């Protein structure tokens, strides 16, 4: 395992376990932080808490902050990643309730917990901590464009919130199961909370974003793999800049394109149609070749969570036949995922 990337976060120092806060979320995709922690750090989660108007659940026990504290929780994590990373005024009383119940607060929003005066005053009076993980390290350099040693895989999406993080985590786990030295490199707040290190790419000043991606995956041994969590989409009307900087700076040798079956409009931007998988592959390879001419697409990760098993298998097989590439749902695993892992690790294939 290679040296951890810079981070203002040390997972071992975070107050754990967590109560997951879902706010007033009605769109499951915006609760991806809560779902990510439930699925990849379940042993650190005691339950969930939400506003009365929330329509999303992780399936964990619903606990008040006081009940969670009695159950062993030490912090409440804001499990929401909504557009703009805002903390609505309606959440503030519930966040203060958590502080009053003896819990610290952990946030990964663009809006800093420490920047909200009522929370700051309450935390100070109660001796509690406000921990903001969407905080990039200082002194990030401008990208050099220099080639680095080691191997890099980047997950690339047709849209936001459809499986890039899950795919990267699943591939890292699969690589390690084969005895391969591999690190998951987190680029968003949920991944950072899971991994304990990383850089929140969308919080980096634009001129330094590609440099942050270089810093995220430094020189490594020839056999080492960095599996880098993708962000946004190269075709996204708002977030494409983050995606492009990550692509250029990470210089991936391999990309895996991620897509959610049945999604045909950009999440939160319904007037924009989703790009096709084929167009996403072509665009990523064209733009990625600027910093790594040897870039290749190993295959496709399809989120089939909304399908039953048999239908999902038919969809994966049909998509693989159409594209001529391995296609798998990493959460379902199976032979299709094994084929995708094989393709990622294959040498000399363009």
TrEMBL record:
Gene3D superfamilies: NAD(P)-binding Rossmann-like Domain, P-loop containing nucleotide triphosphate hydrolases. Pfam families: DUF1611, DUF1611_N. Residues 142-334 form the D-glutamate N-acetyltransferase-like C-terminal domain. Transmembrane segments: none annotated. Residues 45-136 form the D-glutamate N-acetyltransferase-like N-terminal domain. InterPro entries: DgcN-like, DgcN-like_C, DgcN-like_N, P-loop_NTPase. PANTHER family: DUF1611 DOMAIN-CONTAINING PROTEIN, GLL3100 PROTEIN. This is EBNA-1 nuclear protein. It comes from Pseudoxanthomonas japonensis.
